[in-house]
C-alpha cells in the first residue's frame, strides 16, 4: 500500500532549529504523536477501573440438547489481552465496538503486572480459554492481543497447543520478531524476552506444522515501540498469516482507533481461507 504524507509548512524552520532531532518530521508524525499523548492521558484516567479482574457474567453451560442446537453461524467468544504494564481498561472502546456489531461474548484477561515470563502468562491464558470454552459451549475462541498480549497469545497457540481452541488471533503492534526499543528496560525479564534472538523469540521461529489458528497482524508505520517496524508482522512459513499495515497512528492508538476496530471486526469475521498464499496478501489501512 502506498503511504502518502503531507509536508509541514514548518518543516524547513524545524530542520534549521533542530537539524538532528527533527529532520524528516512530517505532519503525519505530528498528528500521530498528538493522538498518542491524548490517548495516554485518557488511559491513565481509566487505568484504575481495569486493575481488578473482570467479573464473569453468568453463562452456564447449556444442556446437551441445547448445546447440540447451537447455531453454526454463532460467533465465537472474543478474548482481549492487554500489553506490558497495562490492564483490560485499554480495550474499553474496542469492546463496545465489537458488542455493537454482534459479538455477544467478550472477555478480558488481566495478567499480573509482576509477570516475568511469557511462558507462564501463556499457560494462564490457556486455562482461561479452556474455562471459557467449557462455560459457553464453544469449542474455539478468537483472541485480540495488544503488544505483549499478542506475543503471549501466539506462544499459547504455537507452543502450547492452543490452536485447538483459538480460531483467529489478531495482534496489534506485537513484536513477533523482537524489538530493540528502550534498551534501558532490559533489567525487566519480560522485556528481555521481547528482544530479537531471545529464547522465546527463537521458539516462535521454530517449526509449527499443522497449526490451525489464523493470524492477522496489524502493524503501524508510526509505531514508536517497534524497532524495526516490520517486527510487528508475522513471518513464518508454517503459519496462516496476514499482515495489515496501518498508516497514521502510533502504538497506543491501535486498540482504540475506530478505523482499526473496523479492521479487527473484518478480520474476525473472515473464515480461515483454504490457501495459505492467499492469506499472506496483506492489505492496508490508512487513518487520517
UniProtKB/TrEMBL annotation:
Family annotation (InterPro entries): AB_hydrolase_fold
Any Pfam family hit: Palm_thioest
Matches recorded under PANTHER family: SLL1969 PROTEIN
Protein name (Swiss-Prot/TrEMBL): Lipase
Amino acid at each position: 500500500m502506498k503511504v502518502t504524507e503531507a509536508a509541514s509548512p514548518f518543516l524547513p524552520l524545524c530542520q534549521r532549529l533542530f537539524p538532528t532531532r527533527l529532520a524528516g518530521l512530517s505532519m503525519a508524525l505530528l498528528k500521530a504523536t498528538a493522538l498518542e499523548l491524548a490517548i495516554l492521558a485518557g488511559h491513565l484516567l481509566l487505568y484504575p477501573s481495569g486493575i481488578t479482574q473482570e467479573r464473569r457474567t453468568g453463562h452456564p453451560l447449556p444442556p446437551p440438547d441445547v448445546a447440540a442446537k447451537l447455531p453454526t453461524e454463532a460467533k465465537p467468544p472474543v478474548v482481549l489481552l492487554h500489553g506490558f504494564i497495562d490492564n483490560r481498561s485499554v480495550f474499553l472502546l474496542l469492546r463496545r465496538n465489537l458488542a455493537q456489531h454482534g459479538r455477544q461474548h467478550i472477555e478480558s484477561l488481566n495478567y499480573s503486572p509482576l509477570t516475568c515470563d511469557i511462558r507462564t502468562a501463556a499457560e494462564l491464558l490457556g486455562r482461561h480459554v479452556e474455562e471459557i470454552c467449557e462455560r459457553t459451549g464453544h469449542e474455539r475462541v478468537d483472541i485480540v492481543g495488544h503488544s505483549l498480549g499478542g506475543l503471549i497469545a501466539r506462544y499459547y497457540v504455537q507452543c502450547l497447543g492452543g490452536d485447538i481452541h483459538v480460531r483467529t488471533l489478531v495482534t496489534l503492534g506485537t513484536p513477533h520478531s523482537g524489538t530493540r526499543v528502550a534498551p534501558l528496560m532490559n533489567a525487566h525479564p519480560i522485556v528481555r524476552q521481547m528482544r530479537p534472538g531471545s529464547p522465546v523469540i527463537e521458539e516462535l521461529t521454530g517449526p509449527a506444522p499443522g497449526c490451525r489458528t489464523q493470524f492477522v497482524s496489524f502493524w503501524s508505520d508510526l509505531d514508536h515501540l517497534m524497532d524495526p517496524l516490520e517486527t510487528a508482522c508475522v513471518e513464518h512459513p508454517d503459519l496462516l498469516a496476514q499482515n495489515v499495515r496501518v498508516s497514521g497512528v502510533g502504538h497506543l492508538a491501535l486498540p482504540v482507533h475506530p478505523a482499526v476496530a473496523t479492521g479487527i471486526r473484518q478480520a474476525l469475521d473472515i473464515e480461515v481461507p483454504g490457501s495459505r498464499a492467499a492469506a499472506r496478501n496483506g492489505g492496508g489501512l490508512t487513518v487520517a
